[in-house]
Amino acid sequence: MPAAPVERADAARNRRLLLDTAQRLVRDEGVRNLTMDELARRAGVGKGTVFRRFGNRSGLLVALLDHSEQKFQGAFLFGPPPLGPGAPPVQRLLAFGRARLLDIEVEGELHRAAELGEAEQRYRNPPYNVSRVHVTTLLREAGAPGDPRLLADALLAPLAAALVMHQLHDLEYTRDEIADNWETLARRVCVPE
Question: How far is Cα 42 from Cα 3, in angstroms, rounded to an integer?
Answer without folding.
Answer: 34
